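Quick illustration for those who missed Monday's session on complexes.
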Amino acid sequence: MTQISLPQQSQAKQAVLDTMKAARDHDVKWREGRVFSLVFNAGDEVSDMLKEAYNLYFSENGLNPTAFPSLKKFETEVVSMVASLLNGDDDVVGNMTTGGTESLLMAVKTARNYARAAKPQIKTPEVILPMTAHPAFEKAAEYFDVKMVHVPVREDYRANVAAMEAAITPNTIMLVGSAPSYPQGVVDPIRDLAQVAVKHNLLLHVDACVGGMMLPFVRKLGFTIPDFDFAIPGVTSISCDLHKYGYAAKGASVILYRNSALRRHMFFSYINWAGGVYVSPTMTGTRPGGPIAAAWAIMNFLGEEGYLKLADVVMRTARKIREGIASMTDARVLSNPDMSVLAIASDKWDVYQIGDELTARGWHLDRQQFPPSLHMTIVPAHALVADQFLIDLKESIAAVKRPSVRKVTNKVVVSTANGLMKMLPDKWASRLTAKSSSLLGASGEGLPQRSAAMYGLIGTLPNRGDLNELVIDLLDQLTQMPKSDASAGRKSSG
Ligand SMILES: *Cc1c(COP(=O)(O)O)cnc(C)c1O
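Prediction with pyridoxal-5'-phosphate bound:
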């Protein structure tokens, strides 16, 4: 076995494309509205527009704004449109990034550097955030050596402001709230957080990655949306993804700051390079023109009118799904989500098993923890499948309630679970299998055969340190180089 080598001869364009098309066979069926995360599909008209705009700027590089004034125009106009949607005044400034994670990385790096200048006595900066905040904050903590202090949320899954205030120390530099949080879709009490931030002279970042391009339109449609943006004086930065409810091409988000004095701490410059003076606003060097151009295009194409129409479709679908779930006694939506992101839980049954049954029926819902739940981000593509989803959810619950469910009833589920087992490093797989057999009562069928067992198990591992190692091993395993048999030439192994 060796690494895969570059094919010796050129291949026909059609052959290459055919291979790629076939490779999609086992991907989640997002076009049919079967997945409730990852893809924000607003229909063919929107994606055609995106592709054309993206292709127009396929080769341009946003790294140097003086070389491509076109991209500079698009970026500044996109940022300005987002700032105005989020009630920013003339002082608000920002930049485009490649996604929510990069926007949050930048918010934390900026806060750290701002604190270095404004509060030099702080040697180990801390950021206080609700435990529902996105993991990108933790990533930023690891990258930039800032400590994240996670605070439990209230019973309604919104940030517990009193507890967050109590967590403030002389090292605190910033507070964080989400609008809304990804796991349960609720907007944190940003106004109260802002009061605390102002009182203690702290920065306040609002993570509106998923909500920034949705909440303003939902509010315009007449729904009650709590204040969350620059309308609140204590808010100092906001992240807002365009590649979510902005329906832009992937690789597009915005990071906004209250004023340019704060934003300066985001910028990087190096003046001693042999290649010349180098400045860069965000994490990346080369910045593809496509996502910037496509974001500008879609915002102008849709306009407020288009976004309102899409938000209306999404909110109607979300309402239908919520009402459908409310009518089922064995499942419920956690808390009272503010828009179209929600979590399904069950007080009586194993919700991961319900998720497996949904998987068997062709749906893809991410599994969440604390508490166990299934994630739904509702997008326009779900309007046509909401009724079928509710029927399948009902059937899935009924299936889980049947006493025979612990036996393996469905080939798809078995192969899913076995696939998962295959991805696990050997020592972990055997450890988990041993553990789950004792947990579920050995049925003599070679447990675990259902992924519910896996997830349930992961939730109950006594030592979460083990789990950390396990998922890192898993990622390592998943991104192993595909090996090919040298004698067989170039061939990807399955
Ligand atoms: C999606 C999301 C992020 C991260 O965005 P990416 O584009 O996936 O990097 C951060 N915060 C929230 C609330 C999100 O929903």
